[in-house]
Amino acid sequence: MNEINKIKDGINTINKSPLSKLRDVDFLSDVIGQCGLTYDKRNIYGDDILYMNEKPLKNSAAELWKIPGQIVNTSLNKLRDVAFLPDVIKKIARNHKPYKNCRFGLWQIPRQLAEALIYLSDKNIKSFIEIGTYAGFTTLFIVSYLKKFSDFSKCISIDISDLRPDDIKDLFTELNIDHQISTSSKFQNKKFDLCFIDGNHGYNWIKKDFLNIGVNSKFCMFHDINDRNCGKETVPKFWNELKMNNNILFRIEVKEK
């Protein structure tokens, strides 16, 4: 799978690059782009569209619907054949993996993510939680990068389902990233050095994730704070309210893009 190879190459580039190079925003932006950006037809990437992965094929559902027909049109003797039925079951399993129609890559604007990571590179980040794993590509890049600058003691990524392909799961294990099927409520009032909120973009969910974890973290990042494609009652609304809330004792230092 070409997308998997891209993120592996990106991780290798991070591992072999000196820290000074990893703090070069042009260099890091290019590394992020080379990892492959998630296919998105909304033209959100601008000039970085050249890094966008190809549109994913969505033929697994069609293949899956052929199977009931095969069973209906098969004789009873054949259906009792110990070699035939397990093969049908295997076909169902192959075409029913949750990541089959998932869009792979980093759903990020390269320079935005690069500037955020460089900003965090001297903040001694040792514990990290991500809300919203999706396929896990952004998780892998963030963790690989920050591990170059400090020793992680805790790294968790949560989602309500597991859409990671097997190769990505293996990379999670290699990097000691703990993936959990969960919501932010499980980690309410837990403290992390860095929280990245990129789960459900609905207003109430964003607010809940922030109050459960983000507000107690040393640093909290939000995804899509200016993405109007998400809708009015989503991340931009909560972000703007947060900036106006005098009861929240923190400074917003990372540039809005």
What characteristics describe this protein?
single chain, 257 residues, alpha/beta, Rossmann fold, 2 domains, five-stranded parallel β-sheet, 11 helices, 5 strands, 9% strand
Kindly summarize this structure in a few lines.
The chain is 42% helix and 9% strand.
Overview of this protein structure:
The protein has two domains: 2-50 and 105-244, NAD(P)-binding Rossmann-like Domain (Rossmann fold, 3-Layer(aba) Sandwich), CATH 3.40.50; 60-94. The chain is of the alpha/beta class and 257 residues long. The chain has eleven helices and five strands. The protein is globular, with a radius of gyration of 21 Å. Helices cover 42% and strands 9% of the residues. The protein has a five-stranded parallel sheet, with helices on one face.
Helices and strands, with pairings:
Layout: H1 2-16, H2 19-22, H3 25-34, H4 60-72, H5 76-79, H6 84-94, H7 110-120, E1 127-131, H8 137-147, E2 154-159, H9 166-174, E3 178-181, E4 194-197, H10 203-212, E5 219-222, H11 235-244
Parallel strand pairs: 1-2, 1-4, 2-3, 4-5
